[in-house]
Amino acid sequence: MRNKIQLYGKNMSSIILFLCYLFITVFSVSIVKAQSSVEQATERLKQDSLINYYELIYDKELNSIIKKNTHPDSLLKKLYAFAPGDGSGTGVYTKNYELIDSYMLFKIRINKGIQLSPGISSWISYTINFLRFNSEILYFEFIDYKDTSVKTDNIKFNYFLNSYKKVFNKKTNWKEIIKDTSLIYGDECFYEGEKIKEMAKIENAIKSKNIPLLEDWISSPLPELQAFAVNGFYQLYKVGYKLTAKQQEMVRVVKNKKGELHTCSGCFVEDRDFRDVLSEFTFD
Q1: Helix-helix angle 211-218:245-255, to 10 degrees
Q2: What percent of the chain has pLDDT over 70?
């Protein structure tokens, strides 16, 4: 009996020791995790504070650049100097194209790099959109981390809107002009050879002779839709469709546009010269 009691006592002691060890281990791990969580939270607060600090500094600097450089060429030069690219996503990314004769739209994305800590970097993003006519900026939009500011010459911008309507028989507005659709002009793209949905719509429009769709797209301020429409009119022209005088005028305007078109060909996605892309569509 005494041996059994001693054995029971030894087993209980072992169990108690094991439970104490388990408790200490779990408690230690919990402390380490808590410390790690506190450190991570502290680091995030530190990084957020740095981002807020840089936002104030760079916002002031960028607004000063915009205010002092009213000529579009000077402004673009200063913007590139403000946010030089380093291959990590920072830099100035522009897309520009003609809307109608000499009225050029510039859509600019600025990623200003910041160093948060050794080995950790990020960037602050800004968007600038402006409509240029020769050396003048008729409409200017600046979007930073907190709001959107707009400057416009109402008289000259309204003159542009009226001129656009005369060319394309369609009204437009600033919201429609800068609409971000991520459109790509092409046929079958990417590794899967996926049919671009706009091209599929054009092919259906050709089969059904859906002229209203082609006229709607060619009068759009979005260059990729205009390119699809020119393609569609050309395919109909090849099978005997006779374009009206107004349709011919719109096709001519679009084919002679300056600037860049977002295109794809197989796996390649790139911005190409507008005139080069549409030069294959020849209307005698």
Answers
A1: 40
A2: 83
